[in-house]
Design goal:
Radius of gyration: 17 Å
Distance between the termini: 40 Å
Order of helices and strands: EEEHEEEHEEHHEEEEEH
Oligomer: single chain
Helix content: 25-40%
Number of helices: 5
Strand order of the largest sheet: 9-13-12-11
Structural class: alpha+beta
Number of strands: 13
């Protein structure tokens, strides 16, 4: 598609049909016929056979984001090998690449926010946050751990719900605006706010020390 502008670098370029969310999010959801169930926020569920795509990024930006996706895919596939805390309620790793994983988180939040697809219609970052995150991605600057922080919960026995693609929804988190995104048996909670959440919540964000 010539004559279009990449939403990330804002340069004119041929655009790739980019995944809004990386394909590895969907792979565990597919059945033997490569189908899964899609549930948009305001419509009936339907069967889909591939992740949602849109002409958003040039090849250079697509390649840049794929570096973070590759790292995140390997990390998420290794969650079962994370250490458990004494309560048994939490798993953690002290060996994260903060920069790569935080930029990965920012990239999926930003792409959901700029997408025109109906599955992501509730993700409305606003011009200030959208532009700030775009600049962070262009500069490959993950920011501080509390900037657009994200914590993740896991459903060990999700059964049917881990085979569904859910539409991200807007929520309130500890008095802050945010979004909830479910991928397989993982729920991602993103804070989109100009004020810091409380210290306890911050402790569940990926830390600059490499702890998640």
């Amino acid at each position: 598609m010539g004559g279009e502008f990449c939403r990330l670098c804002q340069r004119e370029s041929d655009l790739r049909n980019s995944h809004i969310l990386p394909e590895f999010f969907y792979l565990p959801l597919y059945d033997d016929l490569h189908r899964t169930i899609s549930v948009p926020s305001d419509e009936k569920e339907s069967l889909v056979q591939k992740g949602f795509r849109e002409y958003l990024l040039c090849q250079e930006c697509e390649t840049q984001l794929s570096k973070y996706e590759g790292y995140a895919a390997r990390l998420i596939q290794n969650i079962d090998n994370f250490q458990k805390d004494s309560s048994g309620l939490f798993v953690y790793s002290n060996n994260m690449d903060y920069r790569k994983f935080k930029l990965f988180q920012l990239s999926i939040l930003w792409r959901a926010g700029v997408s025109r697809h109906k599955m992501f219609s509730q993700v409305k970052l606003g011009s200030k946050h959208e532009e700030r995150i775009r600049c962070m991605l262009v500069e490959e600057n993950p920011g501080r751990f509390f900037d657009y922080g994200c914590f993740i919960t896991m459903f060990p026995n999700a059964q049917k719900i881990d085979k569904i693609i859910w539409s991200p929804v807007e929520i309130r988190l500890d008095g802050h605006n945010g979004y909830k995104l479910m991928t397989g048996n993982l729920m991602w909670y993103f804070f989109v706010t100009s004020h810091m959440p409380n210290t306890e919540i911050q402790s569940f964000f990926v830390q600059e020390s490499g702890r998640l």
